[in-house]
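Ticket #4471: structure export looks truncated?
Reporter: QA, pipeline team
Priority: medium

Steps to reproduce: submit the single chain below to the structure queue and open the exported record.
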Amino acid sequence: MGRRILLKLVSIGDEYTTEKMHIPFQLAKRMNLECINIGKKDVSNQTIWLNSLQYITQNSKNIFMLIGWTEADRFDIYWEDKYFTYRRNKNVYPIAKLSSMHVADDYIFNEKVIHGEWVANIINLQETLKAYKIPFYMYNTQDAIRYNDDTANTARCIDLPTYHNPLNRDSSFIHFMKKRNYEIDDKAHHDWARFLHNKILAAKLI
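Actual output as written to the record:
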């Protein structure tokens, strides 16, 4: 993508991206950039996509965008001005009876729908970033796109040099590090940031 002046690394993601010793801050340090972190704990891929679009349409100059997609099985819920996600593996919610919805999880988290939407959001964000001439890199924090009849076709449109192994769960941050006997601690975040930096350099994204 050629040489350019970059001043800020803008990161968005889930609970594995929000703290001072997490991946974005470690990567920004390696890239000698200021880190702007707009990630949130307990967030869905839908919200990551929407918040990314909102940010880049208002702040597109001299930034590098880092997107850490979360697990697919998270469903946005807004209740009395509170935002949180409904998940298969979560039972405590601000709404006491919400956990009773788990009987319908297979319907709520229909794999073809959830992962088809995720791929559509990835491609939409990817093309928007390109249109704004914003360099970027994507990775998964703890999940991967499921390969099925729908995603087999649409996932071909993902720009793989800008996304680390989107269809391989073992290539997501959590699973990649655990398979290498890491605890998910500061060292894991530091080493993953170094890994991403090498990927970014190899793809000549900066």
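Status: closed, not a bug. The export was complete when the record was re-opened. Leaving a note from the reviewer for reference: Helices lie at 23-31, 45-56, 105-108, 111-131, 151-154, 173-178, 186-202.
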